[in-house]
Amino acid sequence: MKEEGTKEIKITELTEGSPIFESNGISKVKVTKAGKIQALVFPICSTGVSELIDTYTSKAPQPPVINQVVEPNSDVGKQLKLSRRQHVKTLDFSDPAYLEAKEKHDQDLGLAIMLQGLDVPIKNKKGEEIADKGQKLAVLKGLGMTGDQFMQIVEDIQDLTKWKEDQEDSFLDVS
Fold it and tell me: What's the total number of domains in the chain?
């Protein structure tokens, strides 16, 4: 079953250097001016985003390993099917330092995705294109971009190449 509006293209060969997997689209961001809702429309693309995510994922912080005594009648002991009290190494996903590092990593990844996928130049007051990522972020913040607007753009960039659940179901349906 084909999703409405989805064009199917039969691939018969793949050629090195062809942009077959590059995706582009738009991200609509809500703003309200003088009580009236407007949608800012930004061109977005997927080029380089997958590689960027792979790089960030490989550098993701890991929770610390802790040794703990687990009783056989505890929830963890039952899951591990322990018959006696044992020392077990577990990951501490509640460690404050880990949570702080993970939050920073996730924020940095989101910023990197947006800067990579936003398909418009970001310019300074002189009209010169900005190359430095920190300066680009400063301009976006200075323009008043909110966290929700930022997340909307990041999600839209990620959605360029990801089936939504209902689309995936119809895509995989062979009946």
Answer: 1
